User: Fold these one by one.
Assistant:
Number 1:
Amino acid sequence: MKLFDPLKIGAMTIQNRIMVPAMVTHLCKEDGIVTQDTIDRYVRYAAGGAGLIIVEAMAIHQVKSGPLLRISDDKYIQGLRELTHRVHATSDSKIVPQIIHFLKVARTGWRQTADMLSLEEIDQIVEQFGDAVLRAREAGFDGAELHSAHAYTLSSFLSRANPRTDEYGGQTLEGRLRLIGRVIENVRRKAGADFPLGVRINVEEFIKDGYTVVDSKLIAERLAELGVSYISLSAGGKFEDAVHTPGQVLYPYNGYSGDRCMPGDWLPRGLHASLAAEVKTHLLTKGHRVPIAAAGKLDAPQDAERLVAEGSVDIVGIARGLLADPDWPIKVKRGELDRIVQCDYCNVCKALDGTHRTVICALWPQGSIQAPKDDPSVQAPQWADAEKSLTAISKESRVELKWPKAPGATIYQVYRTSEPDGPQMIDAVKVTFWVDNAVLGGHKYRYFVRPCAATGTPGQRSNTTIVDVPAPAYLPPR
Amino acid sequence: MKLFDPLKIGAMTIQNRIMVPAMVTHLCKEDGIVTQDTIDRYVRYAAGGAGLIIVEAMAIHQVKSGPLLRISDDKYIQGLRELTHRVHATSDSKIVPQIIHFLKVARTGWRQTADMLSLEEIDQIVEQFGDAVLRAREAGFDGAELHSAHAYTLSSFLSRANPRTDEYGGQTLEGRLRLIGRVIENVRRKAGADFPLGVRINVEEFIKDGYTVVDSKLIAERLAELGVSYISLSAGGKFEDAVHTPGQVLYPYNGYSGDRCMPGDWLPRGLHASLAAEVKTHLLTKGHRVPIAAAGKLDAPQDAERLVAEGSVDIVGIARGLLADPDWPIKVKRGELDRIVQCDYCNVCKALDGTHRTVICALWPQGSIQAPKDDPSVQAPQWADAEKSLTAISKESRVELKWPKAPGATIYQVYRTSEPDGPQMIDAVKVTFWVDNAVLGGHKYRYFVRPCAATGTPGQRSNTTIVDVPAPAYLPPR
């Protein structure tokens, strides 16, 4: 598989094209120092074999912001060095921190915007980014990634909604590019041009008057001219359409742009892959071979392989899929696709992030704050009688499925077969029932359920049940 | 060109694949009766040769709503018959009205939502749609189109955000489909199953928690099962993200979903074509050959031809492009591409709609409420010295262009050449200057300007000017 071809990213070589994008964990405390839980989270990804692990955003400044990692002072280097050391001792995975500056938010819903920064504050941000990346180098990271996506400072300057009217302003593309350009120049000077430096940007903002791929192609071109080591493409996640919950600070992932950034189960697979491919094509046309990473529901192994094989992207970012199962890379490499604990895009992880709680996957065993260790010796869950395990009835335009507990199972994967796509996992649950609200009357649906151990060890699939959903009265007979 | 292959749509055959989608004109009065101006608008499209003309939405009910056509009573038939008669007397174009029901809105920002309708009111809507389509048949239309897209009643029921909890509710796909299903059944019974009936839906809603192509594939499948004659795909245009202007009723096209529905110049060409192609593929897989129309910045002739030729869609909807130049079809057919008055997506038409004023194109001659008649005898505009007409300077990360007036020109088309795409028209203006805010420093840009008569007769292009935009200080020398 092309997904397992190594890739040189500046001075660093990753062993495969699989990236864990930055995901908030809330595993540290308000002091922003790496904890044992933080280390355990990233060591787990390393054990699973991801080529590139991006550590959750760490702040270059000291503004209060809950349990968020910091790299704003030399005192943080020690903890970060322990993190990189432990990851490097585990596998060949490369580890890179995401470096962030964010503007202020208040519980009233107020937020600081790009136009409220003085030129002196901008100069300070430029210097702080350089200092932070130098600390990342000293802490043993393999590179650094600047967070210029979503709702944060660098992205707010890049935005088509940038309200400034000076030389950093939204009136011109060059004005919007000036801050990230100066930051990169400062980082290169302080941390060394040989230190791998990636930048994450939005391929589209997905907000009213926001930028689209028309601009992101040019933004990426400028980043390539600046010699960045890779460009990682995300989408949305903006304050502009965030819904304010009274008494809470704005959460930039609960509007439509948030739906695009962390797409739930009703959004299509690989929803931004074609936009990323457009950026890649544009760069190649302009003679730039900088690696491009994409993300957005790319956890189906065949999708990930296809994108890399056809050259649409160079690196596949899989956030929630690898949260659910950090062993996705080794399982895919070994062809053990049926042993993957597949993300069902329920977005419990997103809800935990939005309420500042420790981010876990709902598919992990109850009470765990880390993914269970893979253990091939775990016995496959077994139904007393697999062939009589699943029953289904059609009721009021729904299909209701139920099945008995299978000893040893913590997860039940629900599959629906609809020709010609073959069986698709449509949900993964810990209970023993499921309701399908998305059926068309007048059609037959086939379902089966597969019990899984927490480690992904699959049991025998249930019987396949066929449900004939009655046609609505208004539909003419076929 | 495949674009000019005829297509059978039920009992009607269109002479080419070019459709004028429904566009509000505000050319009638509050009484909702067809005026001479209304007739002139549609006769102009017929003269231009569009295969299928969809007349702006006409209401099946009597709720007050400004200058909007009505089909809610037999008294409207006479005016509509005059309209169809005049269009049919002009060319082979087929003419189909868009039939609409909408919920109430108030200047306070309040709006009626789907869950406020009683079952009796729903039954009445079902009957009103049937009565309206029968009237359309009696008025001599070639078919009818149900408006089940954007912010209106049928779409609000189809929506994933449908808040009802009864059998018309958003809990199940079948619940969301029930109203449109019943409407179609009623229309077929009252107006005849042989009367061509199209339905326009959103391919995606582009709002928080809204539906995506995952659902629109199934919605289209149901419409195909109901035997509709064509399915027209639009996008967005929802109340949910509309921005309320104090004292005005909500306008469902001024949020992000409105950006998607009537995309401005910063959104990419053909931005929903791949989603439409997904729906088409799904239907073919399920054995449904119902024609699919798509829309969204499809006015580049090569894009329109490619989509039809590759079978991605059957009909290409071009709204603003045909508003700018109703002769687009005959000019493309004759290969007179340089005579097209190209839409520049300035969205003055959208702003006029949003403020309830007569919708015109900003490229038409000052004061016109209709597109000028084509007249090949119009003299080409001429500069005194075309080779010395255009000057350009780079200033503060912008490029400023200016040129003298060319006698006979009403429009100046500004072209930028950036390898390898070839020259692209980047704007069309009536003034004699233009500023390019979207340049990258460190690059050379080439521009030329072409003067056009109001009818599209092009003058000689200006000299091509090359502008070297200085690189920003932070960019390393190449």
Number 2:
Amino acid sequence: MNTNLNIALIGAGRIGRVHAEHLAGRIPEAHLSMVADVDREAAEACARKFGAPVAVADYRAVLDKAEVDAVVICSATDTHAEIIEAAAAAGKHIFCEKPIDFDLGRIDQALAAVARAGVLMQVGFNRRFDANFRRVREAVRQGEVGTPHRLHIISRDPAPPPLAYINASGGIFLDMTIHDFDMARFLIGSEVEAIYTAAAVRVDPAIGEAGDLDTAVVVLHFENGVIGTIENSRQAVYGYDQRVEVFGSGGSIRIDNNHPNTAVVSTAQHVRRDLPLNFFMDRYLDSYVDEMQAFVTAVLEGTPPPVTGNDGRVPVVMGLAARRSHDEKRLVRLAEITDA
Amino acid sequence: MNTNLNIALIGAGRIGRVHAEHLAGRIPEAHLSMVADVDREAAEACARKFGAPVAVADYRAVLDKAEVDAVVICSATDTHAEIIEAAAAAGKHIFCEKPIDFDLGRIDQALAAVARAGVLMQVGFNRRFDANFRRVREAVRQGEVGTPHRLHIISRDPAPPPLAYINASGGIFLDMTIHDFDMARFLIGSEVEAIYTAAAVRVDPAIGEAGDLDTAVVVLHFENGVIGTIENSRQAVYGYDQRVEVFGSGGSIRIDNNHPNTAVVSTAQHVRRDLPLNFFMDRYLDSYVDEMQAFVTAVLEGTPPPVTGNDGRVPVVMGLAARRSHDEKRLVRLAEITDA
Amino acid sequence: MNTNLNIALIGAGRIGRVHAEHLAGRIPEAHLSMVADVDREAAEACARKFGAPVAVADYRAVLDKAEVDAVVICSATDTHAEIIEAAAAAGKHIFCEKPIDFDLGRIDQALAAVARAGVLMQVGFNRRFDANFRRVREAVRQGEVGTPHRLHIISRDPAPPPLAYINASGGIFLDMTIHDFDMARFLIGSEVEAIYTAAAVRVDPAIGEAGDLDTAVVVLHFENGVIGTIENSRQAVYGYDQRVEVFGSGGSIRIDNNHPNTAVVSTAQHVRRDLPLNFFMDRYLDSYVDEMQAFVTAVLEGTPPPVTGNDGRVPVVMGLAARRSHDEKRLVRLAEITDA
Amino acid sequence: MNTNLNIALIGAGRIGRVHAEHLAGRIPEAHLSMVADVDREAAEACARKFGAPVAVADYRAVLDKAEVDAVVICSATDTHAEIIEAAAAAGKHIFCEKPIDFDLGRIDQALAAVARAGVLMQVGFNRRFDANFRRVREAVRQGEVGTPHRLHIISRDPAPPPLAYINASGGIFLDMTIHDFDMARFLIGSEVEAIYTAAAVRVDPAIGEAGDLDTAVVVLHFENGVIGTIENSRQAVYGYDQRVEVFGSGGSIRIDNNHPNTAVVSTAQHVRRDLPLNFFMDRYLDSYVDEMQAFVTAVLEGTPPPVTGNDGRVPVVMGLAARRSHDEKRLVRLAEITDA
């Protein structure tokens, strides 16, 4: 296989192994040359499975290797900023899973380090590469529905994560809505000025006791006049619910969920379909391949990455504003967050 | 035909003639006995077309007739309250088109008159009788989607009305959203405590110059914890867009638009359907028959009307709150309106 | 109401009462002036309910009245031909339910009588007036799918009729498929040359013991080269299944079933819709109004009826050919039937 | 990667390269160890691209290698039988693209060679592994639609192949319908007794001049009483049209086409979707991975292949019967072909 780019994986957890599989078998220009994980056995198992020659526990061993061109950071969120800075200092190109960090100041330091080093950095908002969302983006860009007036995003998980996860998640807005904030900016191509949030604990009281929310509507006032709404739930019993509508002067475009097949069964009871895909990895599998392919292509061709460091920063600002709006029951301008 | 109820129509405009046709041909227990309209020629034309024996200019001539059991009020909005009071005083049962009035005090006077007279009064929120909306209501009532968490209503007109109409309309929230406010209460079966509005002029600047809005998102905080959203536009170029979704602990129910046929055409360009029904009278025709049938049945059987005077009052409160929220860019509690 | 045409109903059974209701309340130019039924009580009940002044037992009493302009024949099939001939001799315009008769010679006599009298005659193939089928016809006529190559008709009843009905029905091809034979000719606008049938008893052995079939595929070789297929079943447990696809050089058009609402319910089990409309009268209600309106308009304006006597005759030929093909396990040319 | 099975590819054309890519990157237990093609450059290019160590021109060089466990035969159809026999003699397990051959006698010799050698052989009917068709098969197997009465298969190509291809194709029934014959047997789980064909040249007269047909309806009389129909066209301008319906005593299951996304665009003209996937490789990509995975698993585990040699033979019999039925305008029993 034609391998032009040596890539090291840092973090061999669930999402790390997904990227490893794609780098090993589905992206011809990439070579998975190292795997690092604080759990050395996990690193070794991953390296063995996907044919990487070297496995290490300490990510710094990766950055020391001259032959490593780029790193894919899939470690715990609270290590992202530190590894980004170290990788940038070592001259490695960077793919980093979202979020960069929960702390704006820490994000800004990391982005400054990347800028100083002149390396390329892409943030892992994979949904931008999904065929459905890409189609909506194209429609907006080409004016297929005229001037956009409204954006509505439905984003519901099949089931809430474990409480331990929720406690470390940064809260629903930084963990779940963050994807939708990115999608809103991506689809509309404009920035948000102010946010109003209506949210509640409806799915599981334990989530509320942990200080988090599980049901939310977020109203986005865009600079270009579009009114956006995002709705989230931690639990849609019928599966992963990921829909979008953009409405404009020329019409509307909406996307529906992906089902495992197109079968319609009609019986004496009802006309029905099988449930939508339930697991985010099934639903978004192809988008993970495509985002990694885009990263590899951008590095090899020296073109800008399709998802920048700033694209990783702004949704964090939006998440902080959304939470403040809920806490204070009022419209919050994003400038209140960034000027603080 | 078996006619038990003598009904007089007051106001022979567009909606009045629709009711006249149904009373004459599709509701066996009703007899259209008189038509009144300030434009006597309109009254006569309508009476002739639908077989009513008498036509008059002054609605008071209707109320004088002992044989008239009930009136259907379809005159201009600013005459509703006065006619309701007079009809109640004359002991006639009342069907009145929405809105009762734009002024809360005036509405309260009219409702008090009805209560004093002990007559039955039904308000013309016809959409409650539509097969789609009724199906959603049943699903919520029977727990088919569990405990509701979210309600989303999409309500878009095919094209804005003439400016002259808009100037007399009371504004988008009292003219258009009022239907959705009623629908929200009907579907969820709970009252709204507070409202946040994000609205704009996106369709036609002339609407803005008239002091009105044409694009709106209204967030509803229900007493029972449901978070509702209504979105309106004065112009959906593809036709009348009337969709709803209720999401809850047990799943979701959503209704789509009605099309004139079920045909799907696949060509070298695309796979397509004909546009949704464009005219509200086509879209909601059956609901007009069913609401009038329900009125006639309620009067004949002495049962409570399915849409009460209070159901006519609350959406006006909501409309006033929605406008204030937009004007003041803040969450507005309904109590601020009713306690004023 | 503006009544230009006095119409007498002959036969006050189920379908007769449907026509009576439409003539009385929904077709402004028609006046239901008499009802005849061999069961005089049925005639009187129908007349009373729909406001017809006169009820009689003998249809000849109807034909004697000079003021009757037209008759609507809904009596038992074996009386159709006789009543047509008598009505034609009396100079009455004729609407006759399908089939005219099961015997080709008898049909030809009746049609000859109509031709001699110069009256207008329309046969009751109501589905031609249904919005879905009309849309397909328009697509074919206007070349929206290019030159047609294929026609596929799915036509399944919700449940088999009682055995007593089946015994008098003329068999599945003359009772059920006859509608689809008419539809095939209507949609393609060409005649069928030869027919191949594959049929069986799959739903109920008692139907087979009665000498009939309950499951059938009929292949139609059209003169214009189109290959048609019709599939019938006496029992689709999910409801009335009435679909069509026309495929051609420019694409395809297909129509799906009509449901009572557009609701989609998603639960932990599946994504489902309510069953299609189950009863032919619900499914085709509007088409009955429209066919009768078309008849009234044709008589009043002196224009040709949209469904002629010959349109009533040809499907009987096709039904006889379909049965012979099944019996002899071979392709049967229609000329074999008509030349016999 | 964990490679237990050494596989050699014979034939590096379009479909061969697809299998090579999957063997190299997506099937962990397989190792692509050799590529053979009469065009040595093609063999070398394919080997280089997918990391196979050896490339040869003569497939016999492959069979000589002891370390090769299995062969994947993707060469020209007229070489299949010969290579099967040689591979069997060499003790290699065999995956062979369809059809095995156009000549029944030749097929029987090849299958006998496989039986004698005791090697495993799987035929390349990939559609059985498609998620949609698999879902229908499961529904039938589990009685989800009761006892099947009807099967309807729609199978239309986006555009006819070049005439050169058609001339060598064996005709539409052996080239195109053969997939549907296999699908019919797979879905219903019963054999076909007799076939009636209605076919024509409607797409391109040149196809007719070449002695072939481009539009066909094939009626299948199954042993278990099911009536099947297959319809084919060489050209559906809207894309690859692959639908199926099974109807039975308990209801129906139908599958629709696969689209590149779920977007619905509503404009002032219509409500539309993007065209279905157009290229068979896009439409059936996953099924090619899954069929090869199934082959590898069957060989490694010593279980029967999911598509046997007999499954490769019977559709050829059906194709010959279908053509004879068209030529002789009559029902043809399969025994007429096999007993000849």
Number 3:
Amino acid sequence: MRKFLLSSCFGALAALATGGANAQDWSKPTGDDANTRYSQLNQITAANVGKLQVAWTFSTGVLRGHEGAPLVIGNVMYVHGPFPNPVYALDLDHDGKILWKYVPKQDPNVIPVMCCDTVNRGVAYGDGKIFLHQADTTLVALDAKTGNVVWSVKNGDPAKGETGTSAPMVIKDKVLVGISGGEFGVRGSVTAYNIKDGKKVWRGYSMGPDSDTLVDPQKTTHLGKPVGADSGTNTWEGDQWKIGGGTTWGWYSYDSDLNLVYYGSGNPSTWNPKQRPGDNRWSMTIWARDADTGVAKWVYQMTPHDEWDFDGVNEMILTDQTINGQARKLLTHFDRNGFGYTLDRTNGELLVAEKYDPKVNWATKVDMDKNSKTYGRPLVVSQYSTDQNGEDHNTKGVCPAALGSKDEQPAAYSPDTQLFYVPTNHVCMDYEPFKVSYTAGQPYVGATLSMYPPPGETNMGNFIAWDGKTGKIVWSDPEQFSVWSGALATAGGIVFYGTLEGYLKAVDAKSGKELFRFKTPSGIIGNVMTYQHGGKQYVAVLSGVGGWAGIGLAAGLTNPTDGLGAVGGYAALSNYTALGGQLTVFALPQ
Amino acid sequence: MRKFLLSSCFGALAALATGGANAQDWSKPTGDDANTRYSQLNQITAANVGKLQVAWTFSTGVLRGHEGAPLVIGNVMYVHGPFPNPVYALDLDHDGKILWKYVPKQDPNVIPVMCCDTVNRGVAYGDGKIFLHQADTTLVALDAKTGNVVWSVKNGDPAKGETGTSAPMVIKDKVLVGISGGEFGVRGSVTAYNIKDGKKVWRGYSMGPDSDTLVDPQKTTHLGKPVGADSGTNTWEGDQWKIGGGTTWGWYSYDSDLNLVYYGSGNPSTWNPKQRPGDNRWSMTIWARDADTGVAKWVYQMTPHDEWDFDGVNEMILTDQTINGQARKLLTHFDRNGFGYTLDRTNGELLVAEKYDPKVNWATKVDMDKNSKTYGRPLVVSQYSTDQNGEDHNTKGVCPAALGSKDEQPAAYSPDTQLFYVPTNHVCMDYEPFKVSYTAGQPYVGATLSMYPPPGETNMGNFIAWDGKTGKIVWSDPEQFSVWSGALATAGGIVFYGTLEGYLKAVDAKSGKELFRFKTPSGIIGNVMTYQHGGKQYVAVLSGVGGWAGIGLAAGLTNPTDGLGAVGGYAALSNYTALGGQLTVFALPQ
């Protein structure tokens, strides 16, 4: 009898541990290695999604921003939360009865070192273990059946401003983890740990000597050309690269055929561009690294010498599409800087770079002329150059704002429509850099800013469909606030996303027409996921307003320029929602 | 246009302000003055309740125990929460958009003075104002349209252990409020404030000189006889009455024909009976007071000289039923001591006193012989007498436990079935009194205890139907944990209640058969309510595990005897639910 119960509860775990993911599960925080967030499940369709209802709910026991999404592996759902980062294993056969709960003991002094709320983007699964990346940078491996700690390793040091917010990524026999702290002068890195015992296998920094960045001067390319020696130091003045930012707190993708892992590095530190002359490589960069060695195959820096905090961490979505009659292995990326990029992921060739919000004004375009000296670089508009305007000058009307035309909230891609579904911010800013000195563990921001909707408009967000082959918006649904929830596309011809007011919405994948909405307990900054259990398709999302856009509510800030400028722009959020921390699970009626 | 919007939003407020309550609203925390928690709404029936689904949800932004229920007046819902006691006015025309929010500034030092979680049982409405009884005992009147403070008054002093947890009760031109702190030697009282300006009109203490208790030695009766002079002091040794307990944190009822307000007073202080010889009047007493003057018409002490913390605060339910062919104005009360009492509410005549849990063992019965010297008193079993067993003796196996066969979780009554629906605890205890000295503002408990299900049983609760005319259980639905949620009966022939695991359940009023269940985000200790809006009936309940039964989860306690003995008995709750604070609103599908 006991044996039967175990196999009933954990049968699917064994299947996945041997590599056999299936469409009924949601076994990765990104949905799949390609980061498409597309599900083949098709019980819920454009025709019936209007009848969707709440099946069951679960409170995480924690307030503030709930980013990420639960995992489902077999009959068990794994739910995470923001600091102090509880993890629950819930029994799907019994309305989410708690099989085990893990709550790490963490020093609460890590909270003030977290720039943009106490968020955590979720756990990963592999080798029968659940991997949690704690706020204090501890990476802990939990036995998926019991919640017992199998191993743990400290990835960084909160005393230096290093924190953990990103979801780990399991790739074969390794678990990869990034680091947060770009506003504290942290030097970003990605580290691969052995999935069995937590032993460090490789670490690749975003800047520094080639031995740190795992860049091969001859073989690693940038726009088709070898990067040359010391690219991670010679584009910086002095030792600034040692506190150079380029943190790595976004989503990771993996192409098993190429054995390459893709991710973006964040803003250079400080936000005051005057203090760090040069291109500041390899901040603001798309990385393609060998999964086994960490060595970079290619890089592409989107925003050399950032002047606006256009952090490059957003996800890379891997698709196979045909461009100009040619089948290509593509990588599509919606950058904070407002450009949607499509590259050949085998070699980093730049194919498309277009604005995915027409209000983007800091650059006229990305130079696509391969013969140009500025090939691949954005052509900056002087009026909006905070470097050219200089320290203590308030540069007004820059679009997008620092939190970008999109932040970490991941887009989805449907192979059925060959469209990307992108949750976007529609926000501009005033930005005033100032001189700041570095003290380990202290904020190292060097700019004040305020955010607001584009002049003459009231909607601070849009949910858009994007053609990555041509770089064009296909449809755009306006939203009152930024869409800070990750999207989900399904074979049912629908796309889901959440809103900061707390609505879960489903729209038609082809037209964007709203088909369903439901007011969840709190604002949604989590990512919508779906799974099948007992023959039935479910859709689930975490509510819990917070994150950068919701930091005013989450941290109780009221000064408009607080929260790195977000408080003012999103003040009206308090008319719609309050703090929360809940999972809502939806299904069609019996 | 502005005028139209105002009248659309607040039209019903004006109606109620002039006294015209209607069945579509839920304008009192008790549902009605009689405390029946019965609604005439009948769209949701035994036949269709199985199709009930979640219409919308709202997070209160606060964790820990959520007792009480929201109010609905017209198109506005008023939602409250535990400390720091936020109040939200939600727009029912727009999925609960926040019209206004009020969060009092309170000294968090009040939290350790709250015996049994940071609960608040809800706001009251009258004269265009929302009344909030804060944890720090401040009674604040808010403009129902704007949330602005109209007046506020301090009802007690947390430095002496006085706190506010109970819902205020509006009676005509007064608002009544009780006080908590029986475990801190607080002397209980009820105070009536003028609804217009907060001026104190009268205050009646539970013990003390007749001038304090508002007892008339000649006219106030106990079981038909005048109570005589100084009854509130001469049943105490020395000055013990000054720290005598008898707090008043339960629900209040009102009979407008008799102009009497009814409520119960709590346990005498300390829990060590050896320290307070005598009957300890008028702790553990049902009070009938004139609403205008506060003078007591009659009293009935259920548990003279309490030895088990059988706090008498539970609600009085006023019904008109026929007993032995005679139409009677009745008052029915399910006491913590395990007896269900039915009295004539005009004069306090005792009609029925029977055990509503067959496991109750501390008394054989209540003496119903009017000629007996012990008429109206429980006949205590020596084995379970913690006074007879003495200090530092662990009296084992007392049923019910200190939290009673029922605590504050209110029962409902349906005139259709003439049955009471009672959420009960099915818990026993070991109780060891010890000598304790009094220091103002410090715990003054004087006993340790541990709680557990009755020997040989596993269910710690039952939801029962009770015939108050005969004192018999009609049906009983077992529950794994105490049913700590208030019940709701409706004209649809159904009864609702919540469970500590988080289920909202609907059962057939006649048979108790379960017709519907839904897993809400967190354990339910709130009271189910119903209202009609836009022609449609809704059912709503607050989730948020806590209260005495959930204090282990709520306050993070782990020692089994902590939480006044509750932690051990309810430890398994953590397998089902985590902290929360959410409103879930249900309706039938379109």
